[in-house]
Amino acid sequence: MNTNLYSTASPDIHNTGLAAAEHMLGEADAPVTLVEYGDYECDACAQAEPVAQHLFETFGSQMRYIYRHFPLVEMHPHAELAAEAAEAAAAQGKFWEMHHLLFSAPHHLKLSDLRKHAETIGLDMTRFDAEMGDRIYTQRIQEHRRAGAQTGLRATPAFFLNGKLVDVSFGYEKLEDAIEDLTAAAAKTNARRHA
Predict the structure, then answer these.
(1) Taking the model in full, what pTM does it have?
(2) Which among 30, 36, 46, 134 is least buried, having the fewest CB atoms inside 10 angstroms?
């Protein structure tokens, strides 16, 4: 697997200590990498979730999508625990199922709600309860957050396209257009190589 996920001058900002903790859809060698930093208690992130799904479905083999946790604990008291629940689900091979459920109800993230989500997706509840009780994923969440903070992030959702922050404050059209441009450029480069 290619560990250099970004074409930036300082790729370590995005890669340090995170390779084992990535939640990725798509191929590792896709020409376009979209990284989202999000918070499960953030309304704007919940609204962005179907957009990210749409982008991945649209660009499929040309794009990989990576989700990283950036809980804004100062404003969202349940966001970190929700991220830990997503990690507990990931440990049982069901990260994306939990991810979608958490964003479907961003105002229902108390431990009792998280347990219902875990039951809904069929997690081993003894294991889930033990891991949540021991808070074993807190460090991983904090590593994601530190990586985002090193880039200067202070708000969510934040999208990096091949390592460059894309401003989505006025909508997601700019993001989709940028992905289209990058995939078209990659296709031209690939065609030249094989010509």
Answers:
(1) 0.86
(2) 134
